[in-house]
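Researcher: Here's a chain I'd like modeled. Treat it as a single chain, no partners, no ligands.
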Amino acid sequence: MTPVDLYNARRTLGLMWGLGRPLKASEMGRVLRLGGRDPGESIRDYERGKTKISGPVSLAVEMMLAGSLPPGGVPQ
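Model: Modeled as a single isolated chain. Structure tokens:
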């Protein structure tokens, strides 16, 4: 998964999940259960190419794009 793929996935998931907007980076970080004070910072780092997107993150995003819902439900 490339940084652009992840950015596009946030857009697609927001629409798929009925939000009518892209997922915010912080929402995507929480859905993926990323740690830290601001999980969205990790997403922004991935999208900037600062940090390599891990296999587990890539797999989880691909599964959500295929129709799986996150365990905690869709962000509101």
